[in-house]
Design a protein that fits this description.
Elements lengths: L7 E2 L2 H7 L1 H8 L8 H13 L5 E4 L2 E11 L4 E12 L8 E3 L2 E13 L8 H17 L5 E6 L4 E6 L2 H20 L17 H4 L1 H5 L4 H9 L1
Parallel strand pairs: 1-4, 6-7
Antiparallel strand pairs: 2-3, 3-4, 4-6, 5-6, 7-8
């Protein structure tokens, strides 16, 4: 269990799953650059991130921009949208909201500006939100959804054991890098071209760079 001072940004787990070096440049070296993709993502959240925007429609309640945290994972952050529907399982513990009395089950919904990706970076972020909510409220959440702005469609995500294990492993690795103050080596990929930190990372140059020790040995010869 982590302490409050040890909690890391939950949204960072998506960056870490995509590229540990990108995450470390931001969270270890404290460097960041925007590009058109990050700006588009910010604009997509301009409505959903209104923290006092609660509404109900056809028996469903929407809670927006909800703070979540987990001392087991050592993460804290904001869930874009929690979607509450009437709980039909009489034995399950309900999610309770003072403004909306009743027995509810909750499912997190994450908003992304692009389209579904070939990796699991978006899924682990959503699952981490669910695991935070489960710890906070003593409930069980079986699935959530990711809304992609480019396709304007939702993709349902099942929070199976494999995905939960993956979240735990990534969170542990993030804390290890923070404790050690380490920025992982560059690993060039096609996706690097769209990264907002490409200029800071200089992945192509670093991948071909001569190690410092070898350079110093050459100078001494």
């Amino acid at each position: 269990m982590y302490a409050d001072d040890d909690l890391l940004s939950l949204s960072g787990i998506q960056h870490f799953a995509f590229c540990p070096r990108q995450w470390a440049l931001t969270h270890v070296d404290r460097q960041w650059h925007d590009n058109y993709l990050t700006i588009e993502g910010t604009w997509l959240h301009r409505v959903v991130d209104e923290p006092f925007n609660m509404d109900s429609d056809y028996g469903t309640v929407h809670l927006r921009s909800v703070a979540v945290k987990s001392y087991a994972l050592g993460l804290y952050g904001i869930a874009d949208l929690l979607e509450l529907t009437p709980l039909t399982n009489a034995e399950a513990k309900p999610f309770t909201v003072p403004r909306y009395p009743g027995r509810w089950e909750v499912h997190p919904v994450e908003y992304k500006h692009g389209k579904p990706k070939p990796d699991d970076a978006d899924e682990v972020q959503l699952c981490a939100q669910a695991m935070c909510l489960e710890e906070m409220y003593g409930i069980s959440i079986s699935y959530g959804a990711i809304y992609y702005g480019k396709t304007r469609r939702r993709c349902q995500v099942s929070f199976n054991e494999a995905l939960r294990t993956r979240v735990g492993q990534l969170a542990s690795q993030m804390h290890a890098f923070i404790d050690q103050g380490v920025v992982p080596d560059a690993a060039p990929r096609r996706q690097c071209m769209s990264c907002s930190l490409a200029d800071l990372c200089m992945v192509p140059d670093l991948s071909r760079a001569t190690p410092v020790n070898n350079y110093l040995k050459q100078l001494s010869q």
